From TrEMBL:
<protein>
    <submittedName>
        <fullName>Uncharacterized protein</fullName>
    </submittedName>
</protein>
<feature type="signal peptide">
    <location>
        <begin position="1"/>
        <end position="25"/>
    </location>
</feature>
<keyword id="KW-0732">Signal</keyword>
Length: 169
């Protein structure tokens, strides 16, 4: 009887631990706004100064490997006009990704969509890492300053109706 009781309790304990672990497993895909509170910095250092991060204009993805991709707009009003023209936000990636046809390693970067249809990725010294052509999504009924959406086996980073596609490598 004691052996049966011990076995039953052991199985129950094992099952409850498994259920608890599954419940705490981190969700993959586009994260909810509530998830941003624990991962988004309040300020971001770029080109010699820090700028406030716009929490309301942020988004993130947790890839299948558990690594994060974070994007957010920043208040770039303290930067020169030249920098403002190419830098609107931050990118943080914990894993290698592709943006369009370009590869980007883990790190922290600035980004910006330009008027001539380019998406710039810049290092923290404001030097261009690469640029790719952005796309236009005229089907967007209510474009917002920044959002991330799942699409075509990857994700889209939108700034209004402009977007680029990205995915984990």
């Amino acid at each position: 009887m004691k052996t049966w009781m011990r076995a039953t309790l052991s199985i129950a304990l094992l099952l409850s631990c498994t259920v608890a672990a599954l419940a705490q497993a981190k969700k993959t895909g586009v994260l909810e706004p509530a998830d941003m509170k624990t991962i988004l910095p309040s300020t971001y250092f770029f080109d010699g100064q820090s700028a406030p991060v716009q929490t309301r204009n942020s988004g993130a993805v947790r890839f299948d490997n558990g690594k994060l991709f974070i994007a957010a707009l920043v208040d770039n009003s303290g930067y020169s006009t030249d920098v403002q023209a190419k830098y609107q936000g931050l990118l943080i990636t914990e894993t290698k990704i592709t943006v369009g046809d370009k590869e980007l390693g883990p790190g922290e970067y600035g980004f910006g969509f330009t008027k001539d249809g380019k998406f710039n990725v810049l290092n923290v010294a404001a030097d261009e890492v690469f640029n790719v052509a952005s796309q236009q999504d005229d089907a967007q009924k209510h474009p917002v300053p920044l959002k991330i959406a799942a699409a075509d086996g990857g994700f889209r980073l939108y700034a209004g109706k402009k977007y680029v596609t990205f995915k984990a490598k």
